Amino acid sequence: MTAMVDHSLKDTNQFVGSSTAMKQTSILWLSGWSVPNTVFDRFHAYLPEFNHITVDYSKADLPEEMLELAESAAKASESPLLIAGWSLGALLALRLASKGYANGLMLLGGTARFTRSKEEKSRGWSDAYMRQMIRNLQNDRNEVEAKFRQIMFTDAEREAGLPVRLPSLGSWSTSALIAGLQLLRNEECLSLLSQMACPALIIHGTEDKVCPYGAAEELMSLMPSAKLLTLTGCGHAPFIGREAGIAGELRRWWHEQ
Fold first, then answer.
1. In principle, which of 44, 60, 118, 185 could form an S-S bond with 65, CB 3.0–4.6 Å?
2. What is the pTM of this model?
3. Torsion angle, CA of 247/36/241/89, rounded to 10 degrees?
4. Which residues does 177 contact at the CB level (< 8 Å), separation at least 6?
């Protein structure tokens, strides 16, 4: 069984509006690279007291368009907004929070900066590898997507059949795949973290090979109001097959706020 370690919440007093009832809250779901937003459908079922909003950037032509789509959805919300981002979506969520759109964040397998130097390989990928992925997309996009999905999961997770729970390959346009990789290459939110007063629930697997666990520890150390839930032995999709448990953790955490 996956072990979940609850690290201490550093500061909950900075969050204004803590009396907000859950039924008044919307969750904006932002998916990871190459994966459609239907990956969050199970969460919708397990969290019926929230209003759920999804963003489809699977046909975006530019990184800026992805940011605009996410920001438009956040602006349109008339209720308190909890932004839940996975991987690429976590970067978008952090950017939205820096602009004041979020009352709270849930970051799944996330990072504040994806591309890293050789000295920081415990926190991300090299830019050279990202450029190679972009070149390979031009030749065989299915192979690139399939390879990426392989490294998202641990051997144990693959043996348990978790990869088949992901939506089918091929839902993103090639231009959107490239735009997403460009966003991952260039988006930088590290310098913004210390100014984010909204509470953040960080959920990260210790065996994440896409956004290494060091990225979660970095988020925890730099965000004023962060709580880190560590999923021992989990890979880059820590919520797949664990939606019920994580929904419960989210509900309890948000109620505390």
1. 60
2. 0.91
3. -50
4. 33, 34, 137, 141, 144, 145
Point out which residues pair with 81 in neighbouring strands.
Answer: 26
Give me the number of domains the chain comprises: 1
Tens digit of each residue's pLDDT (9 = 90 or more) over 51-85: 999 999 999 999 999 999 999 999 999 899 999 99
In a domain, 227, yes or no: yes
Domain with residue 34: its CATH number is: 3.40.50.1820
> Three-state DSSP class for 238?
coil
Q: Looking at the domain assignment, is residue 91 inside a domain?
A: yes
Share of the chain above pLDDT 90, in %: 89
* For residues 189-214, average pLDDT: 96
Residue 94: its H or E element: helix 88-98
The full length of the chain comes to: 257
- Check pLDDT > 90 for residue 175: yes
CB 94 within 8 A of CB 192: yes
The DSSP result for 113-158, as a single string, is B-B--GGGTTT-B-HHHHHHHHHHHHH-HHHHHHHHHHHHS-HHHH
Q: What is the pLDDT of residues 127-156, one digit of tens each?
A: 999 999 999 999 999 999 999 999 999 999
Residue 34 is inside which H or E element, if any?
none
Per the domain annotation, does 18 fall within a domain?
A: no
226 vs 217: CA distance, rounded Å: 10
CA distance linking residue 139 with residue 181, whole number of Å:
16
DSSP states of 63-92 as a string? HHHHHHHHHHHHHH--S-EEEEEETHHHHH
Question: Residue 17 falls within a domain, yes or no?
Answer: no
